[in-house]
Fold these 2 entries.
Entry 1:
Amino acid sequence: MRESILAACLFAAWLNAAAANVVFIDNQSTQLSTRQQLEAAAGFYGLTMEVRSVQTEKDGDALLRSFHNPDLLAVVINANALPMLNQRSFQAALHEWHPKIPILIAGINENSNGEFIKQWSSGVIIGGEKSVVTKDVGWYVVASGSEVTQQLGGSRLPLLASDPSYLKIKNESRTTRLMEMIYGSSKLPVFARTVADGRNVFFATETSAADIPVTSDPYRQQAVFASLAPMMLFLHYGADEHAWHTPGSYANFTIDDLWLREPYGHVNYEELLQQAELHNFHATVAFIPWNFDRSQPKMVSVFRKHPDRLSICVHGNNHVHQEFGPLDSHPLQGQVENMRQGLARMERFSALTQIPYDAVMVFPHSIAPEATFSELKRNHYLATANSLNVPSDAAAPADADFVLRTATLRFGNFPSLRRYSAETDIPQTQLAIDAFLGNPMLFYAHEGFFAPGIDAFDKTADLVNKLQPTMQWQSLGSIARHLYLERLRDDGNYDIRTFSATIQIANTHKRDATFLIEKDEDFSQPLIVLVDGSVYPYERSDSKLRLVLPIRGGETKEVAIQYNNDLGLANVNIAKNSFRTNAIRLLSDFRDNTVSNSELGRHFIKSYAENGRLWNLAMAALIVMMICAMSVWFGRRRRKTFRGEGRSFPSSQLS
Ligand SMILES: [Zn+2]
């Protein structure tokens, strides 16, 4: 009874709008970009924001009352509002309630009043100045060794506009430069911190709104992050545990198309395992279910002995070109049959080998349409991981929250993760941003990647482990079970926003706490919630599923949303009786284990993967030409023969 009253109270508190975490003080929004950037950064971290417009000094005095707010974590002041504020009474009022929270003075440019900036920085920063830096030749660099910049230290970020402003610093010894613009030999500060009146006060220059085209390209992240960097760094520092953060840092390296034979192309599992242990990474095989019954016993034993370093996920079903391709050429019903037969074959694989598999789908060739995502969810898959996380027939969302996270739940309420090809150069900045944001880092390659040596992935693993020393390399299933965000509430409990339907929540906080869990759900099919296997009550609120779960300090609980769909996998036919599929699979084996052995062969495979249509056309043309050539040759032979026999025919009768 007491528990249900507590749960009801927490639900009520949950639904009530919280007081603002961030107060933004602005003067007539002449600088819309500063406000928009702050809104985007606050949204990413799940912080509520209140905008206070001050036109007169009287407004400035009235504003001081908003500090009587226990949820306040940070204050941001647009530089153009400084003349309306009395610095002394402002600091005194803030000190009374919040002696520690940081202030950011943003939007500083050449028109900002230097006297006020000097006053708020205790004389160390004296204003802003317009630069002559053009975006083609300059860039930003983030300072190393700071608790504010963390994993981003030393990273280069793109400059998005020309002639940006920089800070004029009078006293370098009392200022910490956090971001600079690099232009030739000049290093111009754009984001800095000082201590004024015993408080951390940050200063950032104005960054004009950047025109970054909206695409599904994951590498857009660098430009989008650059446009928000001072706001992101400041709020991350100010809000700390109160900002959305992931429960840990996770990474995975997946090799597509392999099955358990040694070697598969250039992959020798025993040697790969040695590298994974030496360089601390985890390798997952994206396994084509068609291969379920052909594993070599010795390789089965390697996988069974090392689940911490080697694992299996699902790669299509037959891997017959784009079996999860556009719906007009690949009807949904056929795709559903493929995903179910894929699972049934993987169940059989597990029964034969005693090796578990993760129902995480890596689509062959390219990502599927959105409707396929809903079916994956309905058919008990955990997640999907591909080079793009936007379905083939959907548009990429325009907001920063989408591009700054590796995972999204926007399509069919099903977790979709993006992964990077280890076969191309991945910009270090992209990985540093992922490490800073806590994004899972997923990499992939094919067997040919190891042609130069089984150590081909080591340098990427080393870089990731250097950027994030606490990185946990795990299977895709384990990553899916930790795919959620967590934040500390003002009442000492925790909010959880989950992407996955099944998650493991560890209460690592050395005290008992209640977790308020929320997931986007379309409720298109009946569901139940299980906690450690037992049915557990939940609330439905529009498109959200919510539950309240107390967890003792040091304990872990598994929350699983189970969709009502009896898969009946035991009755699914898993026989391999399609001549076409069998031929394609055996040709693929020939490609990876024979053609791939020579450099010329690998060039052909790469070219075929990139220009398959052209190669098919070229092959067809070649076959037509060969048929023509042969018929001419036969024709001549016949003519010769006939001539030999002393008989001749008019040429028109030969065509
Ligand atoms: Zn493949």
Entry 2:
Amino acid sequence: MSTLDPIHWEDARAMGHRMVDDMFEYLRTLPDRPAWQPMPEGVKNALQIDPPHQGTHLNMVYEEFTKNILPYPVGNIHPRFWGWAQGCGTVTGAMAEFLAASVNCMSWGGDQAGVYVEKQVLSWMKSLMGFPSDASGILTSGTSTATLIALAVIRKKYAPQETSDVGVNQSIHPLRFYCSSETHNCLTRAADITGMGKQNVVSVPVNARYEMNTALLEEKIIEDKKRRHVPACVVGTAGTIGTGAIDDLNKIADICARHGLWFHVDGAVGAVLRCSKKLSPLLSGMERADSLAFDLHKWLFVPYEAGCILIRDAELHKKTFSNPASYLALMDGGVTPQHEFFFNEYGLELSRGMKALKVWMSIKEHGLDRYGEIMEQNVSQARYLESKLQNHEELELVATGPLNTVCFRYVPKNWDTKSLNSLNKKLLVEIQERGVAVPSPFTTDGKFSLRVCITNHRTKNADLDFFLMELLKIGRELQTTKPWEA
Ligand SMILES: *Cc1c(COP(=O)(O)O)cnc(C)c1O
């Protein structure tokens, strides 16, 4: 008989213990390693071999993991990783992933723990976000997927009834979506995939604080109505990807109410700020959303991937995804009784794992208040970095927001914009390649800048000091060598 279980359980157990010990040591000693390092060609080649038909002893496979994979992650677990908007995970989250994979619950529905853990987590999320308890929701792989789900539900509501059967015809009276020019590109992608069309996502300009200009928003809605387009939804953002700006969510909610539009919020980064009593007033109006998409893998530090969509109209949500089949028939008892809950009626997937466990364990262990403290800490670290830039002779603040994001550049005297952009592009790459830190690029007003977005419970102020010190050293070096001119 052939099986994939260990032949010698004691050996396998010893191997498991070794892996756990190694990973704890790896996480404990994180700050001693570079924030990132490029993968050598040889290592990349080792990961491009033909599929093995014969097995290798697990010890050797693990050796290869420690040699070729472990040293070369993107770096987001490191205390000096501040690129894009990435979370750094937690030790408990990692352990929970192991537990979830061991139990390996296929959490589509029925009478089982996977479903009840997820329902528990979703009820916490509704409560945290100020949503009513009869709203619906589902955990997703992230905000991109959450947004896709939201757009499918919105289409169900606003498109002609037969759309689900005959497909989408957006050519005569297209559904229109409105968002600010700072909105994440997952929205246009979702509009494309759902057949709404990218050109029906109307980009509304922002004000000096990178927030949606709501007066222009209303003009665009009225204009579209005159053209017999069908205004369907306004997307507000709670924490833009560029500068962490938060749209005036109450104003947007008012406009949606006035015109009968759906109010969706992209809270990928910012929604979870409701964990902090101090910061949650910034999100005022978010609780009025018809749907809210947000991430748990960013500022809630749940290991990748974990996001969430909440939808006020649970019935409409279910109507969008429910699609009965005889092989999924519900019974009068057993594993799939009629009275139990089925997540495949609320999202894209049928087969799905127990994502909820890592969320449940983490929130239980730390408590929501602790997350709030970390977010406040990150926001004040951004202010600390900003204070270091003030009146600095060689550094210039380019853009900032109310949260955890600061964009700045290195500015030697008497350099024109074009040369400054070349210099700062090279500076960003050098800082990453020398393992100092990982900021990401951001360009506004034609100025290329280094963007620091601190969603990191491991960052200390000393990390920011070290980063600036190294940055100035490298900047001065590049300023004289000008390698981009070579
Ligand atoms: C990260 C992000 C997204 C996309 O979320 P994923 O979890 O990466 O799919 C959407 N909107 C904003 C504002 C983001 O920061």
